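so i finally got all the pieces together for this one. its two components total, 308 residues if u count the protein bits. some of the lines might not be protein, just check the labels. i wanna see the whole assembly predicted at once instead of chain by chain like last time, that was a mess tbh
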Amino acid sequence: MTTEPEPVQAISQHELVEAIRSATGEVFTTMLDLSITPGEVFVEKEEAVPSSGVVSLIGLAGSWVGTGSLACSADCAVKIASALLATPYTAIDEDVLDAVAEVTNMIIGNVKTVLEGHLGAMGLSTPTVIYGRNFQTRSSGTQEWTVVSFALGEDRLCVQVCIAPNVDAHKRTTRTGFPVPHLLRT
Amino acid sequence: MLDVLIVDDSAAIRKILQRVLRQTEVPIGTVYEASDGVEALETLRRQTIGLVLSDINMPNMDGLEFLTKMRAEDVWKSIPVLMVSTEGTQAKVLEAVERGASGYVRKPFTAEQIQEKLTGLF
């Protein structure tokens, strides 16, 4: 009989929220020269994405795994890109999506640095950006998303992180030097 | 004039760094761009580069592997390399320095931070 490792609350909800707020505030102030106001914090089972707009997702992987993302309207994405690249944009294009991806990379990258202080070293994937209407994203598993909203003028954006212990990583380290191949796992 | 190579998988960051470089007191010539370590090594083989700015997290070949391969070649050993990355842990900074980085700037960065690092290099 195998027993799954109990999830460890190695970082508190408060610390995670503060990490998200701090990283987002620093990126917007330093790179975009825009003032952003932290708003409500909530926890969701499914990722809180708009029914239309832009969502940028980045994977986190180590002894803990998860996803960080930024979700906002198309207008908000255009505003972010215009500020970051010091170029006026009026509609979503490749530059705008790349700018949102990079802003997400910097925010989640800095959140990762805080997480690593609690949870050990992690890798960061390259961002994936989705733009469209009437879509929904879904993560497998039952993890909860910690969602922090921000006001950017009249626009609203959400930065959210979902993180959980990597059960596979625990299994793979049961025999040092003999990792269990993923496809042969029972 | 100093020819520069910017290595980052984000076109946005490459554009921002180009703009920041032009604002510094360092005389900048041609700025070449690469989106990963593989492209960066190809550019180094073709051009005479005087300064490299490189990200760490990139597909195909990351910035640390690129740095190691670059420092293994005598002809590229003395080129200053400034790492510009979201990676902010002390361990990662130390690893970059051990592999031959000349300086390290964490994203998000200000133009002044880049300027300050370049002033220290030239």
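Residues 22 and 68 of chain B are 28 Å apart (CA to CA).
The mean pLDDT of chain B is 96.
anyway lmk what u think
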